[in-house]
Amino acid sequence: MYRDRDDFDGARAQDRSAEDVYSNPVRAGKRTYFFDVKATKGNNDFYLTITESKRKMDREGHFVYDKHKIFLYKEDFAKFAEGLQQAVDYIKDNCLKGQFAEDGSYIQQGHYEDEGGYKDEDSQDSVEGQF
After folding, report:
1. Structural domain boundaries of the chain?
2. pLDDT digits over 6-16, tens only?
3. Which of 6, 32, 107, 111 has most Cβ atoms within 10 angstroms of its Cβ?
């Protein structure tokens, strides 16, 4: 039994962190995507969480993070990957024709907003993996 509330909360935090197996953050402008592999409570199974975290400013001028999370279980990996690939291929083939280089990187032209402000140069944002 825990006597001190801080000790109890600290122990609970350690238990939660023990469930984290792997994390891969992907920064994309004001958004960050986290791909986290987690173990179930019995540590006998694993699942993936995909979290989109977007930095916003609240009414008082403080930064807050708006988060959306997807839990993906091993029995759904193949169907999810297939559906994602089909959606990306559709966008590339039907919506963004001619905007991808031969190496698969997306060619973004004109003005775009970056964390440092607006840039007026052509850029190539790499799209890694199968996409």
Report:
1. 5-94, 96-131
2. 443 443 343 44
3. 32
Residue position matching structure tokens 């999810």: 80
Closest alpha carbon to 26 in 99, 100, 107, 129: 129
| Assigned architecture for domain 5-94 | Roll (3.10)
- Amino acid identity, position 53: S
Residue 124's contacts (CB-CB under 8 Å, 6 or more residues apart) are 101, 105, 106, 107, 108
DSSP 13-34: HHHHHHTEEEEEEEEETTEEEE
